[in-house]
Amino acid sequence: MNIIGYGEDSLTFWALTQKLEKILEKLKDGSEPEKCILFYRPSFGRGGRGTSNFGEFDAILATNKAIYLVESKWENSHKEWKKRARQIRLDQSQVNRHRIFKWYFDKWNGNDKNNIFDEKNNDLKREFSEKFKKTKKDETVVDMTIPASSTSLAKRIKLIMEKLKTFEHNKEAVKNVVLFFHSTEKTCKLPEVVKLPKDNEEIEFEKVITIIYGRDEKYNSLGFVNMSNKSKLICRINQIIKEQCINKK
After folding, report:
1. pLDDT for the residue 46
2. So what's the pLDDT on residue 225?
3. Which of 175, 236, 181 is nearest to 207 (CA)?
4. What is the DSSP code string of the chain?
5. What pLDDT does residue 223 have?
6. Rg of the Cα atoms in the chain
7. In a domain, 147, yes or no
8. What b/e sequence results for 83-102 when a residue is b if at least 16 CB atoms lie within 10 Å of its CB, and e otherwise?
9. Cβ-contact 67, 175 below 8 angstroms
10. In the prediction, which pLDDT does 185 show?
11. How many domains does the chain have?
């Protein structure tokens, strides 16, 4: 069965499962694709009135070298892609997502792992609320809060942090990345840098990683992509699973 996907989300999945070697090459990361961990569209709460939610990444990719927090854009992202300036512009809520995740990562890999979600830890709660703010739909600004340990959001954060911990990265290993998908060979106006709102000097983004998707099938130039092609990575994963099943027998 062929699975045909359309748009930004499908392109992200296609690229990270079938073009991962190329992406790692552009990131100057020599890690082996089959040893990476990929979280596809991990959610940390979308919108709503909750003051702990900080949105979804398009992906989180963990390698032996780094942890990449991924935002994806494509040529139809007219709001974010500024052709003349050759920039991808992110809004403050998107930037905050990266800043908040980095805060959790640093605390988890520091001395506060067992205290992050402790409701009695007023020092951490105060630090978090002073550092991160959320603008509501009515434009009012409120302090963000750490979720209680029993919530599904806290449990998701814990699970992801535990998985990332297996790589034993230091705090500098977290990298912020934008993938940009385009369907033509023309490179004259492709974005090169990420533009952030003012007062975000503490966070940096890697150079934009551009990926062409219009080569494999004639309909790809319309924004469709064949998600069922078997890459070397997927074939290797299937081979490992088969070997494990045989060994168990």
Report:
1. 79
2. 82
3. 175
4. ---EEEHHHHHHHHHHHHSHHHHHHHTT----GGG-EEEES-BS--SSS-SS---B-SEEEE-SS-EEEEEEEETT-TTTEETTTTEEE--HHHHHHHHHHHHHHHHHTTT-TTTTT-TT-HHHHHHHHHH-EEE-TTS-EEE--PPPTTSHHHHHHHHHHHHHHTT---GGGEEEEEEEEESSS--TT---EEE--SS-TT---PPPEEEE-SSSSGGGGGTEEETT---HHHHHHHHHHHHHHHHH-
5. 80
6. 19
7. no
8. eeeebbbbebebbbbbbbbb
9. yes
10. 66
11. 1
| Average pLDDT by stretches of 10, the chain with 249 residues | 87 93 95 94 83 95 95 92 92 94 90 80 93 84 93 95 83 91 76 92 92 68 73 52 56
| Residue 181 contacts residue 5 (beta carbons within 8 Å) | no
Neighbour tally for 194: CB within 10 Å:
24
Question: Which pLDDT score is estimated for 42?
Answer: 96
**Residue 178 falls inside a structural domain:** yes
Q: Is residue 35 one of the residues assigned to a domain?
A: yes
C-alpha 180/C-alpha 189 separation (Å) is 12
Could you give the CA distance from residue 42 to residue 23 in angstroms, rounded to a whole number? 20
What phi-psi label fits residue 103: left (phi over 0), alpha (psi between -120 and 50 degrees) or beta? alpha
Six-digit token string for 1: 């069965």
CA distance 4 to 94: 28
Domain span holding position 209: 4-105+166-248
**133 belongs to a structural domain:** no
Cα separation of the two ends of the chain: 29
